Amino acid sequence: MSNSTALVAGGTSGIGLATARKLRERGFDVHLTGRGKKRLDDLAASDPGLTGHQADGGDAAAMAALAETIGRIDALVVSLSGSEGMGPIADLDLEMLRRAFDAKFWAHLTTIQAVLPRLAPTASITLVTAITARTGMPGTTGLAAINGALEAAVKPLATELAPIRVNAVSPGVVDTAWWSGFPAEQRAAHFAQVASVLPTRQVASADDVAEAVVFAATNRTTTGTVLESDGGRG
C-alpha cells in the first residue's frame, strides 16, 4: 500500500487512533482529524508518523478544505461519535438526541460528502457504527436510531459510488476512553458481565476493532458490507 493516503476522521483516540496506527503500519501516509488541539499536540509527540489536523467532521467547509490540502485520498475512515444518546425512551431528552445525531450521523455524512471530490476512483470509505443498530438493549433506542441510519446507508452508497467501496464496521462493547466517565469498579464489573455472555469471552480492545476496519478499508472485494466485530453478540 505504499504511496497510498488515508484520512481518519476522528482519529485522535480509541478505534480511530488504533486504525490510523495500523494503516501506517501497512504503509499508508495517514492523516487524521480531531477537534481538540491538546490531543493533536500529544499525538505529534507520540506518533510522529501520523499527520494530525484540527478539524470538525461536521464542518463541511473545513473538511473540504482539508481534503483539498491532502490531495488524492485512497482510504477514508469515519470514526466520529459523541458521548450522548443513551437513555430510556420515557424520559429521553430529544434535544440531546438531536445533538447526538449531529455528532455522529450528520458528521459522517458531512465528512463523506466533503471529502468525496478528493477520493481516488478505487478508494474506500469505512464507517464505524455500533452493535446498537441491531440489538434490543434497553436504553439504547437513540443510539440504535443513529447507528441504524448509518448502516442502512452502506449498501446504497456502495452502489451509487462504485467502484469506490463503502463498508461499515459495527463493534460491540469496546474498552476505550468512551467508558472513562464510569467509576473504575463499575466499569470492570460491566466488562466482566459482558465478557461472560460473549462467545469470545472477552471485551474487545480498540486494536481488535481496528483490525476489522483496516480489512474493510483495504480488501478490494469487500463492499456494501456491515462487518460485525462484536464478539458474537449480534
UniProtKB/TrEMBL annotation:
Top-level lineage group: Bacteria
A molecular function (GO) term: oxidoreductase activity
Keyword flag 4Fe-4S: no
UniProt keyword list: Oxidoreductase
InterPro entries registered for this protein in UniProt: NAD(P)-bd_dom_sf, SDR_DHRS6-like, SDR_fam
Secretion signal span: none
Similarity comment: Belongs to the short-chain dehydrogenases/reductases (SDR) family.
Protein name: SDR family oxidoreductase
Source organism: Amycolatopsis carbonis
